[in-house]
Amino acid sequence: MSGETVPVEDAEAMDSSAADADIDAEAGVRIVEGIGSFGAIEFSSLTAKDVLTTEFTSLQAAYDYYNEFGRIKGFSVRRSKVGRRTKQGAESEIIWQIFMCSREGERDGKHMQRKDRKKDPRPITRCGCEARIKVHADDASGRWFVEQFCDNHNHPMLDARFRGGFETVGFEIKDIYNAIEKQRRAGATDAESALKFLGTLRTTDSGIFWRYSLDVDKRLENLFWYDRTSRYDYSVFGDVLGFDATYGRNKYKCPLVIFSGVEHHMRTVVFGCAILSNESKASYVWLLRSFLEAMKGKQPKSVTTDGDLAMKSAVSIVFPDAHHRLCSWHLLRNATVRVGRPGFLRKFHLCLMGDLEVDEFETIWTDNVADHELEDHLWIVEMYAKKHSWSNAHIRGKFFAGLKMTSRCEALNMQLEKFIHNGYNLREFVEHFQHYLEFMRRRELVADYKFAYGEPVVKTKLEAIEQFAATVYTREVFKLFREVLMLASNVRVVSTKRTSACVLFEVAMYCKQRSWAVSWAEEDDEFSCSCQWMESFGLPCVHMVGVLVYLNMTTIPKGLILDRWAKRTKQPRAPCDKTRVGEIPDAAYMSMHAAMLDDCRELVSLSCWFFEDYVDVKTRLAKERQSLRDKHRQRLGVPEEASRVSVRDPMRARCRLCGKGRHNSRKCQQSSMWKNIDSFEAGAAYESMEAGEGGDEYYKFE
To answer: Domain SWIM-type spans what residues (predicted)?
Structure first.
């Protein structure tokens, strides 16, 4: 207590832990002594009068108070000007200081116009905000009072999910459940333990979903699962789907299949995971049907795989309306192995990745095959028959969001090595895979936070449309659009023609003979281009942007803004979609989690000194844990655990060609792909192809 008079009834009701916050009954002033006082203050409902009638016992207490006020409201705080005493003997003593919103002021123009800059300028975060608080020392009482307070912001507040303070979150990537694994129920099989673990996840995630199948011996054959976040991500980004199988991520060497896509930051997002006993057509059909059931029947627009025949058959059965694309990297590798001629590979790469028309593709392909006398080559004949699954000329207009390869799946498998060891059993694998998903999602949350704070610096002369794009698109997508915008000055309108339905523009690039047709339905403000880049990737092509500039438009029409690339695509989920009532934002959850860990460490340390304390604390913890579990089940509507299902562990996976383990049929030495291959010639050809013309370009604006 700070010594002020407090009514008796208030003093009796006041918790001792909140005793640092007093209210002077006569003056109507709240006294704040530090962070410990904040429990008695409702920051979200504070008014200007409440702030102006608050006093602090120290300057640090005043700063902590305003910092907490900003955290709750959705803005960050920084220190500003100070006033010091000038009289002799008390020099440099602070008598007043201003704390302000971190977005106060503006960036100096000289930093924006540097010509020797090698990197893009940092996003502009200063916007001239006037929100501030000024505290002044009172010599009579020794406290600090609020002299000025302004709460007028000229910028939007941060979303609630960002208000935990990343700089104060003390979490690390740890395998904290290893001890729990050793205490599994005696007699339970590995498969049963994995299924039970998925069941326990429902206490915190009511949206967890899993399906499994058994063979005739009641062994676990296939297992598929996903959580609520994965399902939500698929509802937003599920128009493009990629999946691949890899071996060696569990002690049974069963194939691991990860469903993934591309989110609005151009990062990989995971939609689900499965463990299969084999790579047969029946297994993939079961998996895709389970996936479709889990996602409420929503089918992707396009699917990218590595070309496995079983995968291809399953995709055509379960996703008949989706366009199936073969992975470009696997095709280049197969071409290197099957043919191995550098001259052919360079032309094949052009047919695969080049921006060609269908007739141009046919001419280049025919000449390339004839030049190398490959008309009767079985693989060449097979690839030509599948051209609609890999050639850019034939795929144009099909939406793939830039996903041409399963390399994202390969990258996921490489990152998994940090979380999952090859010897893990099923229960350990499922648990650590969920840890990996948490790691990925924290990175996405950090990306959302960084991109929500500040705006990119304008770099083109088309400032209005560039600034509009910066407010709509995420940072990574905006950079792609800015590349298009920079090329828009090279677009020239050759001719225009008005029809009853639209206006037709014939456009061409500077010093290029090739022209494109852009149509504009003026009434609906809809655009389309014969290059079909918008339909393929979801961003306006350079031809469309050139017409926008020609028409003096300063904004991008709504029809050219794809929702999946927008900043606000992933809004915080509302309680109506079966999320937890009073759900805590991720950042705040991590902050409280770290604080609770500190308390638990001290509790463990103190309770283990004497045996009677250990027994008492452990008994009470068990009761509290069970009580919290029951509360979670009641809040989420989770039913009680059913009786245990008898499930035997799966068999170790084996190659279907040689019957041995540790590899699949595509890497088997008995596979025809690897017979009679001159490895030196193939390697040289592949290196030549890598250094050849065209390159591996995801985004080409021509």
So the answer is: 516-552
Question: Under DSSP, is residue 152 helix (H, G, I), strand (E, B) or coil?
Answer: coil
Q: Which of 234, 238, 209, 246 is nearest to 224 (CA)?
A: 209
3-class state of residue 204 by DSSP: coil
Under DSSP, is residue 217 helix (H, G, I), strand (E, B) or coil?
A: coil
Q: Which residue matches tokens 């997508």?
A: 477
Global pTM value:
0.67
Instruction: Check residue 567 and give its pLDDT.
Output: 84
pLDDT at residue number 404: 72
DSSP-derived secondary structure for 13-40: HS-GGGTT-EEETTTTEEEE-SGGGGGG
Encoding tokens for residue 256?
A: 């691991």
- Helix H or strand E segment including 73: helix 59-73
Question: What's the confidence (pLDDT) of residue 290?
Answer: 93
3-state SS string over 232-291?
Answer: HHHHHHCCEEEEEEECCCCCCCCCEEEEEEECCCCCEEEEEEEEECCCCHHHHHHHHHHH
DSSP string, 584-642: PPHHHHHHHHHHHHHHHHHHHHHHTSSHHHHHHHHHHHHHHHHHHHHHHHHHHTPPPPP
- Per-residue model confidence (pLDDT) at position 548: 93
Which residues in the chain come in under a pLDDT of 50? Answer: 1-21, 25-26, 165-187, 573-585, 642-643, 672-702
Opening angle at CA 685, ends 679 and 690, nearest 5: 125
The percent of the chain in helix, strand and coil, each rounded to the nearest 5, is 45, 15, 40
β-sheet with 144-150: strand ranges across: 22-24, 29-32, 54-56, 144-150, 132-137, 94-101, 77-84
CA–CA dist 278, 87 (Å, integer): 85
Beta strands in 102-181 (DSSP E): 132-137, 144-150
pLDDT at 10: 39
Please give the Cα distance from 698 to 541 (Å, whole number): 14
Q: How many alpha carbons fall within 13 Å on the CB side of residue 354?
A: 18
Residue 654 to residues 217, 479, 663, 665, Cα–Cα distance (Å):
18, 46, 7, 9
Strand partners, 521: 526
Answer for the pair 362, 384: CB distance below 8 angstroms, yes or no: no
Using a 10 angstrom Cβ sphere, with 0-12 exposed, 13-18 middle and 19 or more buried, the burial of residue 671 is middle
- The confidence score (pLDDT) of residue 163 equals 64
Q: How far apart are CA 230 and CA 582, in angstroms?
A: 21
